[in-house]
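Hi V.,

You were right to ask for the full record rather than a summary. Here it is.
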Amino acid sequence: MASNAKDEMVLMAVGDVFVNRADPPSVFAKVESVLRQGDFVMCNLEGLNCDTGTPIDGKIEVGSRHLRSTPDNMRALTSAGFNAVGMANNHNMDFGPDGLMQCVGLLDKANIAHTGGGRNLIEAHKPAIIERNGTKVALLAYTSVFIPGYTADDSRPGLSTLRVNTSYQAPDNAYYQPGYPPLVSTVPDAMDLERMMNDVREARKLADIVVAGFHWGVSWGYGKVCGYQKELGRAAIDAGADLILGCHPHSLQAMEVYKGKLICYCMGNFVMDGMMNDHFGADTIILKCMIKNKKITKCSFIPVRISEQWQPYIVDREIGLEVMKKMESISTDFGTTYAMENGEVVVGGPKPGTPEARRGFSIEPHRGLPVLVDAMLPLPYIMKKVKAGFFKNS
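Predicted structure:
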């Protein structure tokens, strides 16, 4: 444990984890000692541990596949001290209800709390709650990347899903400049958004700290944070969440500090065993949140790189500074600050008057339609349309 003091604890989190090897614990050999310093250690379980179930029809993701590894690979999670996982993602119903429920049973047997998937809607939305020295942390998980057959309902196993509506608007100059990029709006489904916020409010009653995990965004090297991600992350914090953990794009993306709470839009891969794609980033992080008197008081991250053997390892200060500068660059719109302290990168901000704040005509970033506009268009063009009432919330 990180501390013997009852009022001082450590929460650690990493991104996507998929282990598939003959010696599962070996994948965390170079980071196990660090992860075990956490009182609360969590990840996104990207792919099932199961040997049953039938591949589900309807997957339409380009380059994707049905993903699972054998039940024995669960040993990797226990060896590194993981005690909670999110299951809501675009792979954990790949082998239907049977595959999902076998994995749930394995997690229960390993004493690893889980959320985001279950035998019905209620179980899928039930928070995973971990308690250490009188402090309770609740984890919730949702995916906006899914096909209809993945969603849990009142009587069917599945995942906690959150629908998003996408619309495209041709710009005014499309007639005389064909091919000019469109305005893209991504808006969370109102009913699903409210249900997620209610989940957070209920979890707030049960725990001291609420963490919400989202499988969202665009993969394959797109690199940008979509408008609906900002809306969902900020809405969860408005409902009472203390920390937002994002996954799916498989590479590091921006961080934002909203109302004093951290949103990690994508934490990148931590382990995607045996898998290599051009858009997968080699850099990743171990997020470290200090807890004092049942509140998160400081967020930092330990820079990590993934080896050719798919093993994460702690990097030296020089490479760590490179990762920090990368995070500074991709977080510019959010005004997030980063500072290296004793081998860890402390996260702060936002700087006043950042682009995200200016888009909302306020000092701080906020929720609402103006932040939902995604485009490669110049900011003055977008702002002109916003001021003219061009974007209406339907």
